[in-house]
């Protein structure tokens, strides 16, 4: 019997891996993301590029010394793109993680409780869906940053400078969990009538035990598949906010601030295209790769039923 159970556990994982590897866009996207992760971890050291100001090298086009050119202050655009991508990807991962935690917990409770509790929780989700989420984030960033900075300065002095980043990630995670909650709730509604859940309830197991030991492991595949879609969404939100000046601010940089810097340099007299093309291209390729991997994971972990 242990051998049979062991095989049953490994077969779905092997089949999911086969489906993912058969998804060509997903494998290409994963390869790009792996390369990007290596570059972001290694940073400018792998090329010897210097992100600091060199006043004599302002607005230099791409060359062997500066592969992505330089900006108005003589800073290497490649180094700034690496630093900006690091900030944007970190914001996307942290925001998506918060979104998944909130949405999964909410969906588990709503689906398992059922009845009036489920109806009330889902009406709350409908109401939140109707609100202009991005305006909510802007209002919070505009009003709560000073208070959070003071609090962090008293409790965690080392994080005071990152108050805006922390607040933005929290806000983006707080507005991105609604779809995850709906998906998890639908899965739990289908699972709660299964014999293994009913047997556990008849045996006197607590709701927490059933949720954590029976329902959560059975929805993790779907959660992972749809959580991967949240990462590019949060990155896009962060870049949009930073482009508007509501997100990351100088001297820090994200891909959104770099695109905003490049857009400000567009003029009919001299087109400094590299300031916009390289940060915008890196953002576009990153989002494209993340969405391709998300589609591959969804097909691998939550394949469509066949009639």
Quick overview:
The chain has 307 residues and is mainly alpha-helical. Helix content is 74%, strand content 0%.
Mind telling me the C-alpha Rg? 23 Å
Number of helices: 11
Strand percentage lies at under 5%
Number of strands: 0
What is the domain total for the residues? 1
Q: State the distance separating the first and last CA atoms.
A: 31 Å
The geometry reads as globular
Structural class per helix/strand content?
Answer: mainly alpha
The named CATH superfamily:
MetI-like
Write the layout of secondary structure elements.
Layout: H1 2-22, H2 24-42, H3 77-113, H4 115-130, H5 133-155, H6 163-175, H7 178-191, H8 195-202, H9 207-243, H10 255-264, H11 274-301
Keyword list:
single chain, 307 residues, mainly alpha, MetI-like fold, 11 helices
Walkthrough of the structure:
34% of the residues are buried. The chain is built from eleven helices and no strands. It has one domain (2-43, 76-301): MetI-like (MetI-like fold, Orthogonal Bundle), CATH 1.10.3720. 74% of the residues lie in helices and 0% in strands. With 307 residues, the protein is mainly alpha-helical.
